[in-house]
Design goal:
about 220 residues, alpha/beta, 7-stranded mixed sheet, about 35% helix, globular
């Protein structure tokens, strides 16, 4: 079933101390502005539903670097974050000028926080309530982001929906996967790992998979 070696994070004391300091600065700054992105969250859904993971934010500076790595023009690109949580990645994509920005979230508490954050910032970014096992309305999106939001069975369904979407609207599809535990599933489905970077704030690899536009006669 492909290479299932799991990437490991960097948990050295110096890395943890740096992450904690960054978290405190972000958290205080957010509270002063009436926002909530940074606080880690694990609710009933993540504790009780198999294959769904808890919320942990991608650092804003790191996310902007990740978006800048993908060889796409924001003004011509639809962006969606699967398991968007409180919406930090949506904030970055919207502020960087992506044509359409959305996130999918199943947890009701995170959904409310994410929507409130987007409204507070006045950003044109949609936080959609939906189950990744069932939601497949992806035709408007070219760039998909995942921060290890769920396990292999859910990823298999999501990748299937992405393939179906390309059949309906033929285009290059990029999947950026932070902490790519199930990355082998993309390669088995026909995606190619084109790029790789390192998330210095988390200590995880980030892989950039491309499903190229289908050749037509």
């Amino acid at each position: 079933m492909g290479n299932q070696n799991l990437p490991t994070g960097n948990y050295k004391p110096t890395v943890r101390a740096r992450r904690w300091a960054r978290f405190m600065l972000n958290y205080i700054g957010e509270k002063l502005r009436g926002l909530d992105f940074s606080m880690v969250y694990v609710g009933d859904l993540q504790r009780n539903v198999e294959h769904y993971h808890g919320y942990s934010m991608t650092d804003e500076k790191e996310m902007r670097r990740i978006l800048g790595t993908v060889p796409l023009e924001p003004a011509k690109t639809g962006f969606i974050d699967l398991g968007c949580g409180k919406g930090m990645c949506l904030k970055c994509a919207a502020q960087m000028g992506y044509k359409k920005v959305a996130g999918l979230e199943l947890d009701q508490d995170l959904l409310k926080i994410g929507r409130r954050n987007m409204e507070k910032l006045g950003l044109d970014a949609q936080v959609i309530y939906g189950n990744a096992m069932e939601y497949g309305d992806y035709d408007d999106y070219d760039l998909f982001y995942f921060f290890n939001p769920f396990g292999p069975p859910v990823f298999e369904k999501v990748i299937g929906f992405m393939l179906e979407s390309q059949q309906r609207r033929n285009r290059d599809i990029w999947a950026v996967y932070n902490h790519p535990v199930s990355g082998y599933l993309f390669e088995e489905a026909g995606f190619t790992a084109k790029l790789e970077s390192f998330d210095n704030t988390r200590g995880f690899n980030v892989k950039y998979y491309l499903l190229p536009k289908r050749k037509t006669p």
